[in-house]
Amino acid sequence: MKSGMMRSNLLLFIFPIVLAFVFLSSTVLSASDLILAKVDRRIDLTSQIVRITASLKVENAGSDVVSEILLSFPENQAKHLAYLKATLSEGKGKVKTSSGVGLPIEAIHPKDVPPALTIYSVSLPKGLGKGRSLTLDVLAVYTHILQPFPEKINQADIQLLLFQESAQYLSPYAVKAQSLTVKLPDARIESYSKLENAKLQGSELKYGPYENLPPFSFLPIVIHFENNQPFAVAKELVREIEISHWGNVQVTEHYDIIHAGAQSKGEFSRLDYQTKPYLRGASAFRHLVAKLPPRAHSVYYRDEIGNISTSSLWGDSKKTELEIEPRYPMFGGWKIAFTIGYGLPLQDFLFGLDGKRFLNITFGAPINELVIDNLFVKVVLPEGSKDISVSVPFPVKEWQETKISHLDIVGRPVVVLEKNNVVPEHNEHFQVYYKFNSLSMLREPLMLISGFFFLFVACIVYSHADISISKSSASYMAKLQWDEVQATIQQVHGIINRCLTAHDKLETSLHELSRTGDVQACKATRKSVDSSLKELSKELKQPLAFLQSSPQAAQILPKVEELVTKERELQEKLILKHTTAVEGYEKKLGGREIENRIASYQQKITALRREIDDLMDLIDEI
Amino acid sequence: MAASDAQNGVSSIRHAFGNVLAFFILLLIGVLAFSIRLFSVIKYESVIHEFDPYFNYRVTQFLTKNGIYDFWNWFDDRTWYPLGRVIGGTVYPGLTLTAGTLWWILNSLNIPLSVETVCVFTAPIFSAFASWATYLLTKEVKGAGAGLTAAVLLAMVPSYISRSVAGSYDNEAVAIFALIFTFYLYIKTLNTGSLFYATLNSIAYFYMVCSWGGYTFIINLIPMHVLLCIVTGRYSSRLYIAYAPLVVLGTLLASLVPVVGFNAVMTSEHFASFLVFIIIHVVALVYYIKGVLSPKMFKVAVALVVSVGLMLCYGGSTYSIGSIKPNKGMEWKKFKSVRSFLTSLLCDSTYASKYIPIIASVSEHQPPTWPSYFMDINVLAFLVPAGIIVRLMLVLAPAACILSGIALSQAFDVFTRSIKLQLPSLSDHSQVDAGVASPESVVPNDSVKMDKSEDTSKERTSKKSKKKEKEPVEKPLSKSQIKKRLLVLPLETSVIAIILLVLLGAFYVVHSVWAAAEAYSAPSIVLTSHSHDGLHVFDDFREAYAWLSHNTEVDDKVASWWDYGYQTTAMANRTVIVDNNTWNNTHIATVGTAMSSPEKAAWEIFHSLDVKYVLVVFGGLVGYPSDDINKFLWMVRIGGGVFPHIKEPDYLRDGQYRIDSMGTPTMLNCLMYKLSYYRFVETDGKAFDRVRRTEIGKKYFKLTHFEEVFTTHHWMVRIYKLKPPKNRIRGKTKKSKSKTSSKPASKRKGLKRNPF
């Protein structure tokens, strides 16, 4: 019952197409002498990307030399066509040496072809003479051509897809013999158009052979089958390739991915997904594999809210493989956005040629079997690059931008390439040529160095310069005077300190005396100390005079004067003590007696000393 | 003379050398403060942490994208649906503006860092600034040596690290710097009496007001200090200059911050400063009059002024009491912070938990335990002669660091000096030889030598104040030296004490590094666990937020407990009903009520709030303890506080909160229970909850009004969708809707009248 309904549904939407071709077959394209002697077609339906390879054996039955071959596609296929490549296959039998270079292809619009057909013309390198034949391999890659049916499924359902094609090769030329093989995934096949000579062998479905078909033969077939391959489609992918001549090519890829298979509806139960992942969640994909170039390093995988920890990386000398797991399993219709970044060694991708440099890197995304609806490739060249030109093997939209990055002044030139509907077949190398002076590399380090240099110079200048606003204001003058006063006080302080040191010398000489009894040495010391003290007191006069004259010092002056007088007193007492002690030794008096004699001095000296210390501290604190 | 010049030259070189050394030590301290906070980035990743930082991050994003004017006028319709929130007027803008300015400067220098990176590293950068500010403050108080020690201590005090690791993008991160710097400028003004510094001080205070509600701390502490100075008779013109401009300018500037506004003159926290402002003027007047009048006249004047002044004060105080407004209208967060500040000051968090459950439900507002006190300031606890235990660890930390810095540097000073005095061989001074007891000296040792040794100690530890470094090398015995000599301790004691101090310091460093690495680095949105087969990462929160952000409509409303509000708006970019800015208790109570109600009633509440998704956090599968079931009693309490039909005893069996078979029927039928445990039994067949360590009470049940739309890998976040209203009851809901819409404000009443 259910399948019957489905079939009628299918018929409904195949009907108009059939109608169009019935209509079309009556019209005749410009008379052509070409005949397709043999057509072998293989359709690969194992992933979301449909690849149809057709090997055409073309014969020229006419008399004129033919230099181009026309390929026709029905409308519903043409709008999904992402990639078309035709190669000449030389040699015979199984050993085919297909030269990798594709032949030039362009879309043409002959007048007598209805709009439902899109015609591409393949130019042959040399004309096909009369009676000659050649083999042409045509690879056509389609995206979004598999339609999920039903469109919405539950978590437990499997994903079923519909695919429509013509069992007979649609061509403006007559076809002598043709066969069709459809490769399906190893899974259930819900239904397929059971034509006369349709055969199902394992997962391969064969139609044909058909012989002696007139031009524009069309025999619609529909296949309804299960496919649980990831339907990862990047709505938008921005690849930014930044060249640093310091040895790195940094690639940053921003993905915006959706699961474009059958939409998920109803509940999502983690329990079901965890316990029976292949039964309850077969249509979901949990990881993607990206094949990065060898020697890729510093790989990261994150999104706007941080690092995503579920990824693994392994690699050898030929490739680096990165397996990334999105934050959550991707069910039909679910979306996610993330960023992958990695660095590549510069010498693997940047080459020099005739004074120019060129970057040679792949165009598409590294993720396997990913369909990209909108791809932007941005090549960020170093600042100061000139004469930029791009060579891409297929047509792309191209323009230039400027990006301002670390320490740039004018910004880096950016070449932007835009392409819609990108499939892995587009992973071809493209080249960006530019001129760049190696000396420009030094600009940024020099800028940094000079920046720091000027900073330090500014610091030095600042610390040595007087940046007061007004040099004549009262407060400024007062400050200057005060500085002077302070300096003078410091001077006085130093002198007094030296006096005190001299006193200490006297004291120590006394100790010497008590130990050695060398009276002469002691006297000599006293003499020298005496003279130095005198000198010091002379020295003291000038700063004292300055302090007395300066109004700023009025506050501190009494203290200083007191200090000086106290010091004099102490000096006298010390000399006295010294003399007494020396005399005592000279008179060979007993140690005790000497001590008794100097005891009175000693007391005063200690007291004075303490007072002086207090005063010194006080002055010091100003 | 020549010799003295040479000595002066040597001393100035030494002085310069000391300065350079101090500069490099400070630089290293800054590097230390910065790098010790990078554990979170190294161990986890460069990501914003926890809850509040996500809000700050979102605000910063808005600021950098839309500019300052839009920021001031920002009405955020993504939160508090359907009320919304005026962000510009209710947020302390200091942190956001700081990070925004940093970002702007970097970008205008063509250093294109992302806003996130700038936000992540703002806190470590400001920690370095804070330790430099500590140096300045302590230097101003006690000298460069103590300053350096305090700066080192602050650079790695765990309490401060806990709030300023990389990614912890919170107000406190910049506020602590502002706090210390404000105090430094205050002390500087006190020491110099310069109006320049006074102005700077006001500006620093303004920055503090911009940054954190804790500015009340400053505006209460400084008046207290001023008052103390006046009472102890230390009034001077410098005190006046330090204080009066701060109050006038500071208050004017503070009222420029929208969130403070007129609160700067109308709330009780600021009255102390105004009172002291009046007092200091009275005192200044008294001092002036004293100088002008003769003593006799002065006495008469005092009598007159005192009587008039008393009357004025009385009048003024009655007026101000009359004008204190109740805080109800204020932003709740501020209220909360102030209240918690006060309650914690009073060591009385029971008050809050009794009357306002939402305040008590915030873990930061719980009284700290001794272990956490030790954890947060560690050995500093022994060096600080104070024993206040309040939840003001953060504010306490700088004070503890400064005091400990002073204590440590003094202790080192004493011990190293004693050692140097007693080890003459260290010195090679050749003026006199040792051995003879000098009459004045207690210790029979060479005394002159200590100049040299002191200078070496200067070089080595920079413990001497700058002023002393200026002194000439040749310095005779002086009283201070004698004093120092009197302080000399026995050699063995000093050596042992130094070793102990070094050990203590080492212990502190080890503890701080451990705390930074292990205790405070977890970003809390990513959890890790070490098992026998290595590290396991639990990234469920971001998984859920990413799912919400990519797979729901932009205008869908998500209901969850308020803890996850900020994260949901920031990471998932979806409208939430309540968030961590808990300003509207009723709204939170509504969500709490919904969570505590049975499914149907809850559905009605959520539906009336236009909610499409309900998010719950569930730790039962992996044993994550801070999940919604453990927070559930707070939801009941807060909900019950507004809607009396929710009664806490209904959820408790004999006063115990349990979810096993002994749980009350109310508990086992409430929405939170159902959403948490929906189909949980099918995981292991027994439904064993690893957090509660028990089997759950009700194992098999179906949801009728909600459907599961997403559950994360470890089941930590579960998201449910409200089922659309059934056709059959459409008429009924329409009727009730028209009824509610006919009466203004009846929604809440309707909820209150909820039949359950």
UniProtKB/TrEMBL annotation, chain A:
Signal peptide per UniProt: 1-20
Protein topology in the membrane: Single-pass type I membrane protein
Record-linked Pfam families: Ribophorin_I
Major localisation: endoplasmic reticulum
Keyword Calcium: no
Pathway, per record: Protein modification; protein glycosylation
Chain segments annotated as coiled-coil in the UniProt record: 591-618
InterPro entries assigned: Ribophorin_I
Gene Ontology cellular component terms for the protein in this record: oligosaccharyltransferase complex
Residue ranges of the TM segments: 446-465
Localization, UniProt: Endoplasmic reticulum membrane
Keyword annotations from UniProtKB, A to Z: Coiled coil, Endoplasmic reticulum, Membrane, Signal, Transmembrane, Transmembrane helix
GO biological process, one term: protein N-linked glycosylation via asparagine
rRNA processing in keyword set: no
Quaternary structure (record): Component of the oligosaccharyltransferase (OST) complex.
Function: Subunit of the oligosaccharyl transferase (OST) complex that catalyzes the initial transfer of a defined glycan (Glc(3)Man(9)GlcNAc(2) in eukaryotes) from the lipid carrier dolichol-pyrophosphate to an asparagine residue within an Asn-X-Ser/Thr consensus motif in nascent polypeptide chains, the first step in protein N-glycosylation. N-glycosylation occurs cotranslationally and the complex associates with the Sec61 complex at the channel-forming translocon complex that mediates protein translocation across the endoplasmic reticulum (ER). All subunits are required for a maximal enzyme activity.
Family statement: Belongs to the OST1 family.
Protein name: Dolichyl-diphosphooligosaccharide--protein glycosyltransferase subunit 1
UniProt organism field: Sphenostylis stenocarpa
Lineage, uppermost ranks: Eukaryota, Viridiplantae, Streptophyta, Embryophyta, Tracheophyta
UniProtKB/TrEMBL annotation, chain B:
Compositional bias segments (type: Basic and acidic residues): 448-476
Residue ranges of every copy of the Oligosaccharyl transferase STT3 N-terminal domain listed in the record: 20-401
TM ranges: 20-42, 86-106, 118-137, 143-161, 173-198, 204-228, 240-265, 271-289, 301-322, 379-408, 486-510
A molecular function GO annotation: metal ion binding
Source species, domain of life: Eukaryota
EC number: 2.4.99.18
Bilayer disposition of the protein: Multi-pass membrane protein
EC primary class: transferase
Keyword list, A-Z: Endoplasmic reticulum, Glycoprotein, Glycosyltransferase, Magnesium, Manganese, Membrane, Metal-binding, Transferase, Transmembrane, Transmembrane helix
Pathway: Protein modification; protein glycosylation
Co-factor requirement: Mg(2+); Mn(2+)
Primary location group: endoplasmic reticulum
GO cellular component, one term: endoplasmic reticulum membrane
Subcellular location: Endoplasmic reticulum membrane
Reactions catalysed: a di-trans,poly-cis-dolichyl diphosphooligosaccharide + L-asparaginyl-[protein] = N(4)-(oligosaccharide-(1->4)-N-acetyl-beta-D-glucosaminyl-(1->4)-N-acetyl-beta-D-glucosaminyl)-L-asparaginyl-[protein] + a di-trans,poly-cis-dolichyl diphosphate + H(+)
Protein family according to the UniProt entry: Belongs to the STT3 family.
Quaternary structure and partners: Component of the oligosaccharyltransferase (OST) complex.
The name this protein goes by in its record: dolichyl-diphosphooligosaccharide--protein glycotransferase
Organism name: Sphenostylis stenocarpa
